[in-house]
């Protein structure tokens, strides 16, 4: 079967360590990893049954969507310390397994920067390129899967939103915020298909009783995209592109054919999709509501954070020559929209799933 290359697979976060790199512009994601440490420790202490895990001589952990660090190293170390403590608390210090950590991201991720900055460690490390919407590991080989702030990326832009003959054609916008219902429904349907593919692949890879920890930006149940901080941020970015189209800096048809493959989920959606899949139990889902966090740190900082994540996909579609003007405009528009951003709703979802032992 031919595997189609998608936008999300082709354009990872900015590599290197330059001013617009993910390394220099991922402090918001870092705060999420830091805030989840205690939750991960508790989850492993209470939910991981080390006595009945298969493949006990080697404990395998993967971080899906690892990007280029340093957040991935911190998250992995938090997990290893919690597992080590679990073995000791069970009187199994002498049986603590060797840890094997896989860092996984898109094929075009900057693995050179990632491994050049790999810290001193007490685990074996390997890189695994590929889309996490497909199988990446052998059957029943993983004990803990971790993914933070990656599952908002869809495997592809919904095909309907770029079809001029579809009711969901998203003319003049780059996201489903402030778009017709058909556009939002196309994004929601794509997210549902992708989530099922993700869960189906992980169900095959994770050992029975293994855990999956997911951190993802979300919105409270029932929040319209126009009131969600991520939606506001993407709408403002799209309006900058339209302003440039009106000035003739970019082709308006180019804007019409450009959409971000990003979807912000809700706790209700996650619960329904996990239940439908049936291979995992939701052991914990904690939502920390943050009001107006999109404006924290100032307009320039927010603009640079968005650029670190979106520059690749924008450059591929429009070319690199528009980037500086686009993000200069974006910084100014963010500064003029602080009250709107402060009213926006967003939350950080901590999701703990356990692989069921009697199904799938």
From TrEMBL:
<dbReference type="InterPro" id="IPR005299">
    <property type="entry name" value="MeTrfase_7"/>
</dbReference>
<keyword id="KW-0489">Methyltransferase</keyword>
<dbReference type="GO" id="GO:0032259">
    <property type="term" value="P:methylation"/>
</dbReference>
<dbReference type="GO" id="GO:0046872">
    <property type="term" value="F:metal ion binding"/>
</dbReference>
<dbReference type="InterPro" id="IPR042086">
    <property type="entry name" value="MeTrfase_capping"/>
</dbReference>
<dbReference type="InterPro" id="IPR029063">
    <property type="entry name" value="SAM-dependent_MTases_sf"/>
</dbReference>
<keyword id="KW-0808">Transferase</keyword>
<protein>
    <submittedName>
        <fullName>SAM dependent carboxyl methyltransferase</fullName>
    </submittedName>
</protein>
<keyword id="KW-0479">Metal-binding</keyword>
<dbReference type="Pfam" id="PF03492">
    <property type="entry name" value="Methyltransf_7"/>
</dbReference>
<keyword id="KW-0460">Magnesium</keyword>
<dbReference type="GO" id="GO:0008168">
    <property type="term" value="F:methyltransferase activity"/>
</dbReference>
